[in-house]
Amino acid sequence: MASDDSNDYEVLIGLSYPQICHEGVKSLFDTMIEQEILAQKLFSVYLSQNLKEKSEITFGGINHDRFTGEIDWHPIVLKTLYFIKLDDILVNGKSIGYCNKPNANCIVAPDTGTSAFIWPQGAIDAIEKIDAA
Q1: By the 8 A CB rule, do 88 and 101 touch?
Q2: What is the pLDDT of residue 117?
Q3: Is 120's pLDDT higher than 80?
Q4: pLDDT (tens digit per residue) in 57-80
Q5: Which end of the chain is more exposed for a tag (fewer CB within 10 A), N or C?
Q6: Cβ-proximal residues to 125 (8 Å cutoff; 6+ apart), any chain
């Protein structure tokens, strides 16, 4: 963890898997698991869509006040970043059809530590075609 007074954040927390941590460093989440202080071995993230409401991270559970409906659980398929396999990708409520293609690599890495998402190139191409139409 690091703090830097010159930025608009209070702390930077690494949540990566041990395989990509710096040698000899454990993530905060792994340390919490090791110390058995969590009710459940999970964390959840709420990302606010406006500046008037703060984003939050919950360790050891889920803040059920931050969503409605059911949670769709996806297993982590590659434990470096949090890579998950999607069932489908929707744009404006409609499937782009990418994940149903033979040999489609519909694996993504949603990463709260960056403004970028790792997507399969074929899915990006399909979304761009919809956007151009």
Answers
A1: no
A2: 57
A3: no
A4: 899 999 999 988 998 888 889 888
A5: C
A6: none
Given the structure tokens 């340390």, which residue do they identify?
Answer: 31
Token representation of residue 11: 């702390």
Residue that the structure tokens 């590659």 belong to: 78
| 57's tokens | 């991270």
Pair type for strands 90-91 and 56-59: unpaired
Map the chain to HEC letters.
CECCCCCCCCCECCCCCHHHCCCCCCCHHHHHHHCCCCCCCCEEEECCCCCCCCCEEEECCCCHHHCCCCCCCCCEEEECCEEEECCCCEECCEECCCCCCCCCCCEEECCCCCCCCECCHHHHHHHHHHHHC
Name the residue with tokens 């409906």: 69
Would you state the structure tokens that stand for residue 53, as one six-digit string? 């409401």
Report the distance separating Cα 28 and Cα 43, nearest Å.
11
> Rg for the chain (alpha carbons), in Å?
17
Q: Dig out the tokens for 32 from the structure.
A: 């919490």
Tokens of 18: 């041990």
